[in-house]
Structures are given as structure tokens and as C-alpha cells.
Amino acid sequence: MGIWLWCVGYALCSALNYWLLACGGAKVVEGWLSIFVVGWLAWDWNSEQIRLYTLIMWLVETVVFVLGLLNTPLRLAWLGLPAA
Fold it and tell me: Which residue windows are transmembrane per the record (predicted)?
């Protein structure tokens, strides 16, 4: 997997996370709709809980993104692809 695709994937995830955190997206997906955006555990969470979960996951995604940029075998292993 090329670095460009790794960066595009991170950019798309970051856009969703930004929308949930800063643009009021957590209020929009609050309730049963959060199952499809956040996960099945979030169906009864309020918007603040969704925002906290999103913030934590964004930090984890950022760490994995940086590690994947620096280490190609780790990036491939994270995606379940064989090392080249």
C-alpha cells in the first residue's frame, strides 16, 4: 500500500472526526444513528460521550498514522497485508 493511500485514508478519517467534534456532528448522530458512525456500543450515548470517544480514537489514529508513515512493515501488518 502506498503512502499516498495511507494519507488519504487518514485524511478521510480525520474529516469525519473533525465533523463529529467541531461541527456539531455528534448531535446529529446521537441515538440509534451513532451505531453506523461510531459503533454498536454508542447507541445510547449522548453527544458529549460520542465526542469524547471520537477524540480518544482520533489520538490513537494519529499515533498509528505516524508510526505507519515511519515503518512500512507495521503499516502493512496493521492492514493485514503481507510484508513486501
Answer: 18-43, 50-70
